[in-house]
Amino acid sequence: MNFPPIVAPITAVGGAVAGIRVSGDTAHQIAGQVFPHWPENPAHLQAVYGPFITGDDGIALPFANQRGYTGEPAAEFFIHGSPESVRQLIDTCIQAGATLARPGEFTERAFLNGRLDLAQAEAVRDLVASQTERQLKEAIRQRQGAVAKSLPTDQIIGVIATIEAHVDFSEELGELDRPALVDRLQSAADQLNALHQTAIAGQLLRRGIRIAIVGRPNVGKSSLLNRLLGRDRAIVTPIAGTTRDSLEETIQIAGLPCILIDTAGLRETEDEVEAIGVQRSHQAVGEADIIWHLYDATEGWTEADQTIANQLPPTAVRIANKADLKPAEGLAISAVTGQGIEKLHQEVERLIPTGLDLPLISDRQAEEIKAATQTLSEAQIALAQDIPADLAITFLRETIIHLGRITGETAEPDLLSRIFQDFCLGK
Ligand SMILES: Nc1nc2c(ncn2[C@@H]2O[C@H](COP(=O)(O)OP(=O)(O)O)[C@@H](O)[C@H]2O)c(=O)[nH]1
Ligand SMILES: [Mg+2]
Hints:
Number of helices: 17
Order of helices and strands: EEHEEEHEHHHHHHHHEHEEHEHEHHHH
Bound molecules: guanosine-5'-diphosphate, magnesium ion
Largest sheet: 6 strands, mixed
Oligomer: single chain
CATH architecture of the largest domain: Up-down Bundle
């Protein structure tokens, strides 16, 4: 294939060291022009230290054809992290024949060169963006190919082959065993359904779990937020109504990304500013994945707490706070001493259980799986009834096309460019 050389920084601005990658058919020649110590026959991954023609010094790292990230001959340079030094080296590479890479172009090349499938390429983006333990773990698993492995593509292709053989050699092979094929397709359908069910957890893992902390004034909502954050973000006072606006903080709970929302409370109020806060609280509750309804253990469950509970969905979790002052039934915690807080961690973990065999798919992948499930079931219907087998083949081919869009085998160019556009420069 013909891949003109491209160049871009691969590290973010602000570090002590900066990395730059050149990739393409003539990457090694370009490296030779900007780095005089570049070896005549560079060995894969054999780093060389020396000066660049820009004046800065650093390390040049060769990648042999089909061995590096992009699958093309490539070179990576590590120099001092000065933005000016980076700019000069990139300019020099451009003068030597490279063009500046588009965002995502390195990964796009890796895909075009067969180093990654499309789901793996998307996982690279997730991997780089991951900020919590579970996000990282899931992105690594998907970058290793977990999505493609979980698709029943081969099973479906097997069924297509069986039907085609019978269409072509109907005399030799006899009647098509339609019920057996419907069964084989059902196991593929079950697999697709199971995979589709991971999409909700996948979405939560990518966007973060929204947790609204609600309750009447002074029950300790802000104190709980501060306890979970490990620092004093929200103002805590013994005067009711101090948190007039909702506060949002992103933290990691049980390795999961969580957006905690300390609401202003849900009480009726004459104060105009507080009223806006109350309005926002209702919105936060509506958008939340988890609602923690705090009440004061020293006062017990009061009528005012019940009034709030009546405005909440039944999924809201009742939590007795200030359990250090008075023991309470059910889920009891203390925002001050930290007792019982680990039970809240478990509440969060339930949304994205650990140890799932299947990858947590993205919304895009879920859409294709849904479409694939649809055409697969039409193929089953066609086979179950006395409809010519060609129609079933048509539906099964459509199914394969939908699944192929997940891995990129059947992805149209505009789908590819849409996906790679989402990447940052240097990816
Ligand atoms: N002893 C004890 N006091 C608490 C606890 N949580 C909050 N408080 C106190 O209760 C008061 C109100 O807390 P705050 O977090 O501002 O309540 P909010 O209005 O619901 O946000 C403050 O004086 C806190 O120090 C707790 O678990 N134990
Ligand atoms: Mg508060």
